Amino acid sequence: MSLSLAVSPAFPSALSPDAVVGRLRRAGCVFAEDEARLLFATARTDRELAAMVRRRVDGLPLEHVLGWAEFCGRRIAVDAGVFVPRPRTAFLARTAVALAAALEAPVVLDLCCGTGAVAVVVGAEVADAEVHAADVEPAAVRCARRNVAAGGSVYEGDLYAPLPAGLRGRVDVLVANAPYVPTDDIGLLPSEAREYEPLVALDGGADGLDVQRRVTAGAARWLAPGGSLLIETSERQADRTAAAMVRGGLAARVATDEELGATVVIGTRGTAPQVDEASASR
């Protein structure tokens, strides 16, 4: 099937749409025609197109080749070596938007933010939201700061550690797309993820829940009364994620989107004031 594209005369015949589709297909790209359209639309010169095709054929994730990913209808910058936002995470973002939009001037925190995609969507769709994000990976933080820009604040550090003390007890919606792949399953991931995305963004420990447990254990101290913690997880891990939230003092429920194959566990803090154990002991 020929690819219908208006191609500049600057592109030599070796870089014709059909030729590019053929190379991508031989490299194992399932959606070769769609990828070719994106490559032609993004490349500014024949030299740039040739380099992009070569990098994609060599196995680099398409989003790293393009320098961006489409997420919830927005173009999110994705730098090399940064975790690529997955389509299923749109459910996490939409759920966060729905909860935040029901509040006046909500405070939203995106932990393990990667590119900051969820923070960007919430900030764009909830006009009066105060948006914060954090990640432990320096490359991800640099990328998230570009994406979030003036729409919020991005911190570098491990989970809650880099957050300003003034956020404690004020967060209305806390979103965490923490790594949840069990260590022994990392080898089963597509080579694009294994080779080009940071292990810290993928490896969730022996059962995939190590980072999630740390998030749930500390969430109640940062959530406002009635605030919600949203964690993306897998269907088979959802019950254990919910149990971790309950141990952290939250009421938990599971939400799913069958079309996206997405599962989000939502934990809600009670409306009674949270007691700071350290302060209470003084």
From TrEMBL:
Catalytic activity: L-glutaminyl-[peptide chain release factor] + S-adenosyl-L-methionine = N(5)-methyl-L-glutaminyl-[peptide chain release factor] + S-adenosyl-L-homocysteine + H(+)
CDD domains xref list: AdoMet_MTases
InterPro entries linked: HemK-like, MeTrfrase_put, N5-glutamine_MTase, SAM-dependent_MTases_sf, Small_mtfrase_dom
Pfam families: MTS
Span of domain Methyltransferase small: 104-180
GO BP annotations, alphabetical order: methylation
Transmembrane segments: none
EC number, as in UniProt: 2.1.1.297
Keyword Nuclease among UniProt keywords: no
Keyword terms, alphabetized: Methyltransferase, S-adenosyl-L-methionine, Transferase
MF annotations from Gene Ontology: peptide chain release factor N(5)-glutamine methyltransferase activity
NCBIfam families to which the protein is assigned, alphabetical: hemK_fam, PrmC_rel_meth
Record protein name field: peptide chain release factor N(5)-glutamine methyltransferase
Organism: Streptomyces candidus
Species lineage: Bacteria, Bacillati, Actinomycetota, Actinomycetes, Kitasatosporales
